[in-house]
Each structure stands twice: as C-alpha cells, then as structure tokens.
Amino acid sequence: MQITREDLNPCTVKLNIVCDPEEVKAGFDKATKQLVKKIKLPGFRPGHAPKNLVEQYVNRAELYDEALQHIVGNGYKEALKQQEIEPDPTVRPQVEVTKLDEAECEFVAKIGLPPIVELGDWKGIPVERPAVGVTEEDIDRQLEELRQRRGTREAITERGVVDGDVCVVNIKKDEEEGDGRTFMVIAGQTFATLDQALAGMRVEEVQHGELSFPDNFQEKDWAGKTFTATLTLNSVSSVRMPELDDAFAQSLKTENVEDLRARIRTGMDKAVSGEIEKIVSEQLLDGLLERSKVEVSDNMWEPIADQRIEEVAAEQKKEGRTLDDYVQEHGMTVESLREEWRERAKTEVMRALIVREMYKQQDLKLENEDLSNELEDMARETGVTPKDMIRMLEQANAMNELQFRAISRKVRELLAAQANVKEMAGSARA
C-alpha cells in the first residue's frame, strides 16, 4: 500500500492511498464469494454450483460495489494504523475513489481529527449595545400593516389605476404571434415604463408604446430588452382597509385603540429586545473566539454548508426556479454563495465548541426551568404549541438542539454579566 499524507490544517488530514494488487484481488474474491451465495441455479444446491458457472450470473455493478466496500474499508483502516491517526469519532471521513478495476484501486480519504479548544479570558469582552426604543411611528406602521391584513379586495371600475392597485395586464409584443403574455402586477412597483403606462389606465383600456424591461424580469427572453408592445388592462382591484377605530381594535381582541396600541408596543418592545440580544450575543461569541484557540476539521462544517446549498436548491425547484436564478437575483454566483455558507458553517461549529467548553469549564448546570423556557421560545418562533414543538423535535431526532440552546443561553448570560458593555445610539433593526 502506498500512502501520501497531506496535513490540510491542525485537525484535517488528507491521505492519497494506492492499494496493493493483492488487496484488490482479495476484495473482489471476497465480494464474488458473497454474491454467488445468493444465486440459485437449477440442479445445484445454493452455494454448491461450480464457481466458473455461477460467476457468469454475477451482476457487475453489484460486484464492484461489494468489492469496493471491502477494499476501501480495509485500506482505510490500514492507512490509519500506518499513519498513527486517531480520527474524531463524531465525524465521518470523506472518501473519494479515483480508480477502481479488478487490478487497481486508488482513493482519497479526508479525515477529521478531534477539535482543539483552548478557552481564552472570557471576562471583560467589549460589547456595544444599541440603545433602541419603540417610537409612535413604529406603532403607526404596525397598525397600518394590521389594517392591510384585514382589508378586503374590491374590483375598481370607476377610476383609473393608482399606485398600489393590483392589475392584471396583457402585454403583446409587436410582430409576435399569439395572444401575448398576462401578468399580475402592483402599480407603482413594477418597472419605470410599465408603471408610467399603467398610471391612470382604466379596465379594458388598451395602449401601445415602448417598454424597457429590467435585466431581472421574470420572462428571461424579455429581460434587459426594449420593444414596442400593446398593453391591455384586463382588471384592477384595490384593498379597502377598515377604519382605525374601537370596533377594529375589538376585532383584534382588545378593548379599544389605546389598548391595541399598548399591546403593540409591548410586543414590539419584546421583539426589539430580542434583536438587541442577538446583536450582543454575536459580539460576545466573536470576542470569545478571538481570545481563544479553536481548530476544527473540515469534515465538521463542510457537510453543513453543502446541506444548506442543497436545501436552497430544493426550495427553488419547488418554485419552478433554479439555483442559478436564486444567486443571480441576489447578485451572487453559486460559488460565492457556497463560500458564504462555508464560512458561516465553520463559524457556527467553532462557536458551538467554545460554548460547550465554557459550559464544561465553568461547571454550569441546566435546570428543568431552563429547558422549559427554551422550549417555549422555540415554540413561539415556530408558531406551534410547546407540546407540538416537543413532538417535532422527537420526530426529527433533534432533542439535543433544545439542550444546546439552553446551554448556549447559560453561557451567553455569564459572558454578558462580565462583559464591558457600552451603550450606543442606533438601531437593531434593518
């Protein structure tokens, strides 16, 4: 066996392994023996037919798969022994077979070693806490959103289009066959030339003129192009919002408008406090990482990043879009998106390790109340009851997430109590 070793970082080793021909032959022989036992030939008891006869019926793909398990499995174990490597048992090695036939086998193994975590001085971490309060304007905006949600849509026939109206329009490009293409748009929120054309139009009115489509237009063959077209307004509707009075407040299970405003303020105060806590927590954990030494294997975080990319691609596919569509819409490339998630995943893993190390070193303990409070927060974030949240976590085999969140909160509270906090004027909201 030939082994070439490359230490990618303190916790990741890459081995290029070339197996001996004898090892390859032994792997195929063992695979063949196992597969022929499953083959039944007339006139012979299972496992007693002549080898040269039975081998003709062995599926080649199954043979190679089975042989690969033996060859790579044995080769990997032997390589670890020769290189005196003790891998991290919590992460899987990444194995890529680069050559395989009945005489040769070569593969690459990327192996994660146990993480290195040396906790630094966690007291006095500098933190800037945004000083943010809920204003009357914030409450007014929230009330406006509530009114919009309770609004009813009405067809508009007695006036022309104004900004905010929902319009169904048909656009037929000059000299293009067919009935044109129909879109539902919100007036004032499309693109300049279409917004200008729609302004003041009435239902069933027709216009002819030049339209300049933006580069990100949904119809790819029209995106970034300018051409003349016929525009037909098929329908217009608008949302009639309820009056902001006590009747509206009572429909939201409050006594009057004043009570509704007070309840909104309470909810927004809590939301803002939560955002501030997130900002402070980010600074605390980043500060602790800067003061500590944390080394992790690539195998700990690369699968997390890859999984997230797959999830984004699956979400886009459900919407009839591709991953390329998604990244272009966000001004990125697939590679830059992947790199962003790689950095984020690595940071999350390093934070988790430093949190657990501090929890252990400071001999912190979780009480039932800690877990109950965390469960309620998770349920509230997800929009379900605590009982349903428990069931969801159990079904996903993710009860450890509940425990880790409670551990993380304990650690962050301890860090915050000893932090060097500076109150800052600013906003925690985007």
List the helices and strands and how they pair.
Blueprint: E1 2-9, E2 12-18, H1 21-36, H2 51-54, H3 60-83, E3 94-100, E4 105-112, E5 116-118, E6 126-131, H4 136-149, E7 152-155, E8 166-173, E9 181-186, H5 192-198, E10 206-212, E11 226-240, H6 246-251, H7 257-291, E12 293-295, H8 298-318, H9 323-329, H10 334-361, H11 368-382, H12 386-395, H13 399-417, E13 420-425
Parallel strand pairs: 6-13
Antiparallel strand pairs: 1-2, 2-4, 3-4, 5-12, 7-11, 8-9, 8-11, 10-11
Looking at this structure, what is the CATH superfamily of the largest domain? Trigger factor, C-terminal domain
H/E topology pattern: EEHHHEEEEHEEEHEEHHEHHHHHHE
Give the biggest beta sheet. 5 strands, antiparallel
Strand content: 15-25%
Q: Rounded to an integer, what's the Rg over CA atoms? A: 32 Å
Give the CA-based shape.
extended
CATH architect. name of the largest domain: Orthogonal Bundle
Number of domains: 3
The average pLDDT score comes to 90
What is the CATH class name of the largest domain?
Answer: Mainly Alpha
**Distance between the first and last residues' Cα:** 58 Å
Please count the helical segments: 13
CATH topology of the largest domain: Trigger factor, domain 2
Number of strands: 13
Low-confidence stretches: none
Helicity, in percent?
40-55%
Structural class: alpha+beta
